[in-house]
Amino acid sequence: MDKTIGIFGGGQLGRMMAQAALPLNIQCTFFEASTDCPSATLGQVISSKAENGLQDFIDSADVFSLEFENTPLADVDVLVKNKDLHPPRQALAIAQHRLSEKALFDTLDIPVAPYKAVTALEGLQAAVAELGLPIVLKTSRGGYDGKGQFVLRSADQIEQAWAELGPAGELIAESFVTFSREVSIIAVRGQNGDVKTWPLAENHHHNGILSHSIVPAPNSADLQPVAQDYITRLLNHLNYVGVLTLELFVTDKGLYANEMAPRVHNSGHWSIEGAVCSQFENHIRAVAGLPLGSTEVIRPSVLVNIIGQHPKSADVLALEGAHLHLYNKSEREGRKIGHITLMPTDSTQLTTLCRQLAKILPNPLALSEDMTI
Predict the structure, then answer these.
(1) CATH number assigned to the domain comprising residue 153
(2) Is residue 147 part of an annotated ligand binding site?
(3) Domain that holds residue 52
(4) Does the keyword Protein biosynthesis apply (predicted)?
(5) For 282-304, what is each residue's pLDDT tens digit?
(6) Same structural domain for residues 169 and 311?
(7) Chain Cα centroid distance, residue 350
(8) Which of 23, 62, 287, 352 is the most exposed place for a label (fewest CB within 10 A)?
(9) Annotation-wise, does 215 bind a ligand?
């Protein structure tokens, strides 16, 4: 093997990074609590529970990356004394702290909803008085797939919201953004400063979990250059290497940033088949110091998450233009265990595929028959 990349985490994102690395003659190792993880069949898994696990992991690879932004900074601090980590520690630290993230967006003139830091019940009351209702109260640290949040619509809910989230410590109260849709832009920056972006994805959620993404986002020609400018500011400011994702709200005042994810992203899984170079391959290329590949779209795509229960593989693969990815994960309610990428030739075929897929999935999601590409 030419190079070994160590990845903090061994879930489906690490798995798909490793799958993209193999054709490049790059091996991956994984630092994960469970050695029976989705990535276990693709490289050495070093237990994060082992006494010398972190040092063994550091010794296992030449350069390092991660699949989840909540990677412990204490582990990162030990690693970066002797080895390179992409993305940089600074990006990770900011992404782990929502107030720091908002401050970075402010510094780079990336619009966000009005917000206030909250550390006490009285502070929450003051935030409601200043920002008005509704507001979204979030923990400043942690939270994923809709967790760690409380939508406060009435002053009568203030004490309930504080009781639920107050023990987490520092909170952030954000004005509720009236938006028409949610989109994300994914970009990659190489070690030489080269930046490439994929088209905006339009994202649809169900119970706080991504249900499906449409790429390119319909009617996004005017939004693409704005989003591209915002994410490029972030990449260059952070001297970033690897894939970065910026989640955005589309409002009548333009794009508002929601949050960034310093990693490959669920809304970019379509790129495995739908782009010349996927987010996973380009991330591996960047981390390894290789030239970046083209992010050009081969065909408009729809990414559909498989949540909770597996469909019958034969039924999915019988759909024209459908690609199935299973993550080597057991079934559990609310758990992402795979995804399907649809590559229809036109909106008519997309409608047909959505109808067929809704019948196949054990837990059919809100797949609209009115989707267009």
Answers:
(1) 3.30.1490.20
(2) yes
(3) 1-85
(4) no
(5) 999 999 999 999 999 999 999 99
(6) no
(7) 25
(8) 23
(9) no
